[in-house]
Amino acid sequence: MPDTALPPRPRQRDPDQTRRSILDAALTEFAEKGLSGARVDEIAARTATTKRMIYYYFGSKEGLYAAVLEEMYGGIRDAEQALDLGSLDPVAGMRRLVEITFDYHAAHPEFVRMVAVENIHNARHLEHAPLVADRNDTVIRTLRDLLDRGEREGVFRPRIDAVDLHMLISGFCFYRISNRHTLQRIFGRDLTAPAHVAAHRRMITEAVLAWLRPEG
Amino acid sequence: MPDTALPPRPRQRDPDQTRRSILDAALTEFAEKGLSGARVDEIAARTATTKRMIYYYFGSKEGLYAAVLEEMYGGIRDAEQALDLGSLDPVAGMRRLVEITFDYHAAHPEFVRMVAVENIHNARHLEHAPLVADRNDTVIRTLRDLLDRGEREGVFRPRIDAVDLHMLISGFCFYRISNRHTLQRIFGRDLTAPAHVAAHRRMITEAVLAWLRPEG
DNA sequence: TTATGGACTAACCAGAAGGTTCATAACCAT
DNA sequence: ATGGTTATGAACCTTCTGGTTAGTCCATAA
């Protein structure tokens, strides 16, 4: 009997590639279905490898989830660290920061969904991603610097809390993405339509600047 | 042989009570764990009745979920319809509306979580709760009325879109509740501390009013 | 009294889902 | 080449879970 065995697909060993592929597939699946809604088999099916590899590299479903979460926060950190607002005057710098925040959320709904999912789980897994807290220091420091300079120049009100302001900004940017489905159902509006995107971008920018302006 | 039977717990038959009890238990469980994270057995255990009754009254896990969701939106509708802003001047009325919205979200984190969960599922179940869309007309109409009057009196800018404004307001109110766990982890702040609550309440109110003020 | 139908229950089931076993192929240093 | 380590794959196992079956209980109307 001749050798009828299928030519064994040349197994290429590439740990990094395999890890990446799992992480990418998991991101999609978790962002789409949430932690408990996601299926490990489904994630495996999305990758070129097998379920076994998920456990080999990440230990458990939750381990994988935590890894994805950490990865996720890395992205926005990079985006924010990239901009150099030191050269701009406070008002222009603030405007720029709001716009960047708005644009990042609009461009990365998976990030928004992952954070929303993590909040459903009371941010339990953030514990296992300790370096996440770091990145936010960057934004807060940038914000504080802008506020200080603006106050000195008399274009911003004094005693604004940077964290509160950050929440005001990212709150709206986050909300319009995280809640776009219910909003769409209820108001019958396509929030991704360019006209609405532009209007929202202008609204949050101007609202923030209006609020910061001294002598209300 | 004497009658050793335990006194049979007098089974009280009360369909409404049973339904309510299931709905309450389900709300807790769904808000806590999400749709797929919630366990029907767990919900049953929280009630005085059994799992079978859940299927008897609601047909399926998703049917129960949809029922809870609808119930949920009912609450905020009532709260908003209760206030009569017609007698207040536009600025005071707007301030009041923002404050009510803020307070409602702060007081009802379960509502916030249910909506967040529903968005993870792309608002798929809102289809089965058709009367939900109604309630929002109320807010939008109230808002539009305030905006019109304010514009006529020259205290608000013209051509403000009521839905956009609604999003600006509820966006922040929603976000500080929906994301409080990740925010807490990252900034190490207890967002429920009275000082922060008060600061946030003032911030969103003033930001909205500042933005609405004419001649930016 | 008895019959009727809504309210309720315990036990069960099939399939799904997370996690594991064991064999083995590819790679690398010697 | 060779021995040991890392990476990979297919099938398997166990537990859980949504949903069902088959039947009991009880208030009321006839």
Automatic annotation (TrEMBL), chains A, B:
The keyword DNA-binding applies. Residues 39-58 bind DNA. Keywords: DNA-binding. Residues 16-76 form the HTH tetR-type domain. InterPro entries: Homeodomain-like_sf, HTH-type_TetR-like_transc_reg, HTH_TetR, NicS_C, Tet_transcr_reg_TetR-rel_C_sf. It holds the Pfam family TetR_C_29. GO terms for molecular function: DNA binding. This is TetR/AcrR family transcriptional regulator. It comes from Roseicella frigidaeris.
